[in-house]
Prior knowledge:
The structure holds 2 protein chains of 2 kinds. By secondary structure, chain A is mainly α.
Amino acid sequence: METSIDNNLITRSENILERVITSAKIRDAVKGIKRIKRSHRQIRAENVFRKTIVIVALLMVVLVLGIMLTLVLQSILSIKTTGLAYLWGKTWDPVQDIFGAYPFLLGTLLTSFLALFISIPFSFAVAIFLGEYYPKGWLPNLLKNTVELIAAVPSVIYGFWGLAVLVPIVRSLETKINVAPIGLGIFTSSLILAVMIIPYAASLGQSMIKMVPANLKEAAYSLGATRWEVIRSVILPYTKSGLFAGVLLSLGRALGETMAVTMVIGNTSLIPKSIFAPGNTMASVIANEFTEADHPVYLSALIELGLVLFLVTVVINMIGKRLTKKFTN
Amino acid sequence: MSVQVKYRIGKSVGFQVLTILLSVACVIPLIFILIYIIQAGITKINWHFLTNLPKPVGEIGGGIANALVGSMIVIGVASVIAIPVGILCGIYLSENKNSKLAYWSRLCVDILQGVPSIVIGIVAYFWLVKPLGGFSALSGSAALAVMMLPIIIRSTEETLLMLPDTLREAAYALGMPFHRVILKVIIPCGISGILSGVMLSVARIAGETAPLLFTAFGNNYMATNLTKPMETLPHVIFTYATSPYNEWKDLAWGASCMLLIFVLVLNIFTKFITRKWKVQL
């Protein structure tokens, strides 16, 4: 009796056990399938993600090529009709279809280089002040932050300020030195541009100067050099290319600056006779006349200006970036 | 001390004084410019100014409500376009440092950063304004988005490169797939650096006028339709500042002050974040 009961029990419990085991197996199998599905999904998601970022990176290349292509295609009409004479033609008269960009090229170069000339002493002084004399402390920190904030002010606000404050000042200056007191003109725009580009050269320059190895400076001091001699014969030669890159980058910014210049330069298509005369830069001509251009050649001529501006700023910026990279490596 | 040594020390001190003088002489006027703009504008800002449309010439009062709303919409749409694209591109550049595509992509980002804003305006005109048949806020947003991209990409790339490789390797060792490692581990760790780049880019485009001249154009009425011209703060400053009417100039001062405060606050905030970020690292 006892054994039969035991047998019965054993078979029953075996059955139960089997059922449990099979159900567990099914559960495991289901889990396994789920896991496989999930990992499939994840692999797919991973592939999609990888592809997306590659496409986005490609998009940047396409974007820049597209910009260049658009500019070239749209200016072909003007290049065909005026040819190379476009660059040195002295008159810009849309009514009679005469397009010469020389006054604007001259205006752009004059304002940018004058601005560079005015800003360099100040930006180098700030760079040396922050990089060498007082690299730490609250006052230099304040100075540094202020200079960086100045770079953040929108150019249209600089233009408005120039119109309201700087133009009257320049006008009174012009009456004193006996030039036609217009106030608007190349000189005023250069002053505003100078204010706008100081932060660029200054902040890049101060980080370069901070990177000069201490042992070089110490070696010079141990030979009995004064602070000025260390700056002149160790720091400046060492950071030469970096400082030059800063100047180039601020030049690039000055060349392409539009709004502030448009508001204070006076907007005439004549060749500026002196630095106090009103004129126009490439960017300001585009800003003023683009929506007024009523026939295809006119529009195309304006776009050709944009193309020239694009090429010049790209070249200058690339050289500047190369120099900075070489320096930081 | 011999005369020569004294001369050399004198020269050194002289140069130091000159440097300090030039630095101070350049920074103090800059501070005065900021103070002048804020002073000229702050008195013009009141409730009426913020909630009303501009009035025709000759009538006193009027506000810039349309420009405020328009600027918010244009900047918002630009951010929606630029932030995901910029961050994804930054991820690609930091994950594939030495691939050929990364080299070209990086070069193009560099070029894009240097393109004058007016040129981007021209291109946006041909890509979006002409095909869509008229000036639209959307084309303005697209132009601004292109200007935001380089800043976001650069800051994302640089932040992600600063993260230690061990972080990435630990996540991989747990069997996480690539996209989860990036989205759940790498991005959250570098979020403050990325955010600061995003805010800087917003601060930069908030004041951009040139690309909006031929895209969003401007509008005297309240507009919320993305396919129609829309007024923006910088554009309102430009048109009113160059107008001959004093009432309009007052409006422009108020608008300048608001724009300036917005941009400066954004910049200061960014500085705060980046400082914290550097300490954490």
